Amino acid sequence: MMKGSNLPFNGTTEQEAQLRQKLNELRSKDGALMPAMQFAQELYGYLPYEVQLIISEELGVSLSDVYGVATFYSQFSLYPKGKYRIGICLGTACYVKGSQDIYDRLQQLLGIKSGECTADRLFSLDATRCVGCCGMSPVMTVNDDVYGRIKPDDVEGILAKYRERG
Amino acid sequence: MISLKINNIPVYVNEGSTILEAARSIGIKIPTLCHMKELSELGACRVCVVEVKGMRNLVAACEYPVSEGMEVFTNTPRVLNSRKTTIELILSDHRQDCLSCERNTNCELQRLSHKYDCDSRRFEGRTADFVYDDTTEYLIRDNSKCILCRRCIAVCKRQQGVGAIGVNERGFKTHVACPFDMDLVNTNCIGCGQCINVCPTGALQEKPEILRVQQALANPEKYVVVGTAPSVRAALAELFDMPMGINCQGKINTALRYLGCDKVFDINCSADFTIMEEANELVDRIKNGGKLPMFTSCCPGWVSHIEKNYPELIGHLSSCKSPQGMFGALVKHVFVKRENINPKDIFVVAVMPCTAKKGEKNRTFTDGLADIDAVITTRELSGLLKENGILLNELPDSETDSPFGEYTGAGMIFGATGGVMEAALRTAVSVLDPNAKLLPLEFSEVRGLDGVKEATYIVGGKPVKVAVVNGLKNVKTVCDKVKSGECDYSFVEVMTCPGGCVMGGGQPIRATIVKHRDEVAKARAGVLYSADRSMFARRSHNNGSLLKIYDEFLDRPNSELAHKLLHTHYTPRPKYIKE
C-alpha cells in the first residue's frame, strides 16, 4: 500500500498553473528542489503524490529523490491539514499528566493517526512537543484555541463543538 | 604529487587522491561497505575510518583527500575497535540467516564480520520494520538484510539514470525503497538488476525460477529445451573457481545434459535469426523511408525504459523480438513440427545474464503460447549445478544439438556492447551491397566501453551513421536528439548495462574481488570476441541451419510467418501506477 494521504487530490487548475510557473523559474537554478517543495507545501498545505510528480517532472529530479526529501524534513507533510488542526502535547509535563490517553482517544474518535487528516477534511491531528503552558497540562490545541487540564472524556465534547461549527 | 605517510610508510600520490586510494597504491586495502568509485562516494558506512595525526575524530578514508605531510594510521586499536563496533551495530539490525542466504560466502558484510572478529549478537534490541518486496517478475528486495549503504540507489540513479529507489524517512526509520513506498512493480524500475550486482549483502536478488526448472526436469511428460545466452559462457566459470575470461560453453552443454535437458540449443543461433530479421528491417527502413534511427530491441531493460519514458519513440524500436523471444517461438512452432511434439509439452528454459529477461518472458507469446517458460540467470544456473553436484570444471566439453545449436560469430558477440550493431552491419552491408567484393567483417569503432560510440560506414554507396550506447543513463542525449529531430543516426544499439550483457544483472557478483569493473567487462567480452575470431562462419546469413529453416519454414526474413513468430509490438506504459 502506498504511503501518504488516501484522500482524493483536490488541487485546482489555478494552483497547478502557479506551481508550474514557479518551477519554470526555478528550473535552471542549482538546488531548486527545496525551494520548489517549500513553495508547493505552502500552496497546497501538503505534498501529495500528484504534486511531487509535477515537481519531479518539471525539475528533472527523480520522484524517489523528491519523496526522500519530503520524508526527511519535518517541514513537509504527505497529509493535508484539516480545517481544525488539533495538536496534542506529548512533552514531558503533559505526558506525565496523561496526555497519551487523550491522544489515544483522539485517534480512536477521529479514526486517524498523527499527521493525518479526516476524510471530511475537518480535523487533522499532530502530536506536538511542549507548547509552553505546562501549568495547564495536559494540553490540547485546536487551531489557536487552547484546552488545558483535560481528561479523555472531555475530548468528545470538544470535537462536537467544532463539528457543529462545520 | 603529495607526500604523506601511512602507518609510517612514505607514500606519494596525485593531489586529489583519497586516503583509501593512497593506501591501496602501496598494497593496503582499507575495508568499505558503501564505496564505489565515481558512483557512490558519500562515506555512509563508516567502516573505512582511519586515524589522522592531529585530528580529533576518525575520518572516512574513502572520501577524505590526502594532503602534504599527512600522517595516517589504518590499524591502531582505536581504528580497529571503531570498525568492529560499526559492523556489530550493522549486524544488530540485520537478519542473520547467513547459512541459507543467497550471498553466503560471497557477502561483504559476512567477510568483514569474520575479518574483524565481530560478535554478531553484541547489540540486541528493537529492529526496524522491514519491507519485503517481491512484486516484480525479476527481483526481490529484502530490506531485513539492507545495511543502508546506498550503492543500489547510486547505480540506479547515476549509472542507469532511472532512480526507481531512494532513501525514505530518517533516523531509525531510514530505509531504501520506492517513492511513497510503492511496490517496485508499480514504478519506473526497468529490471536491469544492476542494483543486485553492487549490493554488499543479500538484500537484493533475482526472483528465483530454479524450482520451476527442476519440476519440469522431473516431469516425464515435459520435453525440456534449453538455450544459453552468449554472455553466460563468458562468466559462469568464475563461479566455479576458474579465472575470469574462460569460455566454458562446451562444459555448460555437458552440464545441461547431466541435468536432464532433452535438447541443448544455443541462444547464439536465435541471435543469428535476430540479425537476419533486424538487418533486413533496417535495410527496408533505409530504402523505403521508414522511421529512423532504428533502435535495437534485444535489451528488455531498454525496451521497458522507452515504453515508460519515451512513448513517442516506440516507433523507432525494431519490431524484432529479442534472441530469447525468437528462440522460444522457433522451438515451439518450428522445432515441434520437425519432431512431431505437442508444443504444450515443451518447456523452454533460457539461461540469461540478465534479470529483465525474466520480465520479458511474460510478454512475448505466439498463438497464445508463451515463447519461454523459465528464465534463469547465470548465478541461478551455477546454483542449480552445485545443488546437483555437477562439477563444471571437471566436465568434458560437448557440442550443442541441431538445429538450433549452430551459430556464427555474429551471434556470439551479441553479449558485448556494440556486438549487436557489428553483427547487424556484417549482414546489412551485404544485403545493401550484394555485389561488393570485399565486405568488412570487423567494425572496431563500435567496440569498447565508451558510453556512446559513433561511427559512419559507407553502405551501398551511401553513408550510414550509427551509434552504440551502453549504460542506460547515456541514452538520454540520444533520445532527446531524436525527439527534437536533430538526430542523424540511422541505427542505434542500446544496452542497458555498462559493457553490455556480459555485465548484466544476472552475472556473477564480483563487486569487491577485482579492482575495477572495466577489467571484468573486458575479460568477459574478450571471451566472445576471441570465439568470434576462431569461427569459420562469422556472418549470420552464413549460418547453415538458419538458411535451411528459412528455406523450409519461414520463406525469407520479414516474411508473413517470420513476422508472426519473430516480431513483436510495444505499448506505452505508465512510469508509476498509483496503488
Provide key terms for this protein.
heterodimer, A: 166 residues, alpha+beta, Glutaredoxin, 2 domains, four-stranded mixed sheet, 7 helices, B: 579 residues, alpha/beta, Ubiquitin-like (UB roll), Alpha-Beta Plaits, Fe-only Hydrogenase (Larger Subunit), Chain L, domain 3, 3 domains, five-stranded mixed sheet, four-stranded parallel sheet, 14% strand
What layout of secondary structure does this protein have?
The complex is a heterodimer of chains A (about 170) and B (about 575).
Chain A: H1 13-26, H2 33-44, H3 49-59, H4 63-72, E1 84-89, H5 92-96, H6 99-110, E2 123-128, E3 140-142, E4 145-147, H7 155-165
Parallel strand pairs in A: 1-2
Antiparallel strand pairs in A: 1-3, 3-4
Helix pairs in contact in A: 1-2, 1-3, 2-3, 3-4
Chain B: E1 2-6, E2 9-13, H1 19-25, E3 49-52, E4 59-60, E5 71-73, H2 77-92, H3 108-115, E6 132-133, E7 139-142, H4 151-159, E8 166-168, E9 175-177, H5 194-198, E10 204-206, H6 210-218, E11 223-228, H7 230-233, H8 249-259, E12 263-266, H9 267-287, E13 294-295, H10 300-309, H11 323-339, E14 346-352, H12 356-360, E15 365-366, E16 369-370, E17 374-377, H13 378-387, H14 409-412, H15 419-432, E18 452-459, E19 462-470, H16 475-484, E20 491-495, H17 517-533, H18 544-554, H19 560-566
Parallel strand pairs in B: 1-5, 11-12, 11-14, 13-20, 14-17, 19-20
Antiparallel strand pairs in B: 1-2, 3-4, 3-5, 6-7, 7-10, 8-9, 15-16, 18-19
Task: Describe the overall structure.
The complex is a heterodimer of chains A (166) and B (579). Chain A is 45% helix and 11% strand. Chain A contains seven helices and four strands. Chain A has helices at 13-26, 33-44, 49-59, 63-72, 92-96, 99-110, 155-165, and strands spanning 84-89, 123-128, 140-142, 145-147. By secondary structure, chain B is of the alpha/beta class. Chain B folds into three domains: 2-75, Ubiquitin-like (UB roll) (Roll); 91-206, Alpha-Beta Plaits (2-Layer Sandwich); 214-566, Fe-only Hydrogenase (Larger Subunit), Chain L, domain 3 (3-Layer(aba) Sandwich), CATH 3.40.950.10. Helix content of chain B is 34%, strand content 14%. In chain B, helix 9 (267-287) crosses helix 11 and helix 9 packs across helix 15 (419-432). Chain B is globular and about 80 Å long. Chain B starts with a strand and ends in a 13-residue tail after the last helix. The model of chain B has no long low-confidence stretch (mean pLDDT 94). The chains are: A alpha+beta (166), B alpha/beta (579). Chains A and B meet through helix 3 and helix 4 of A and strand 8 of B.
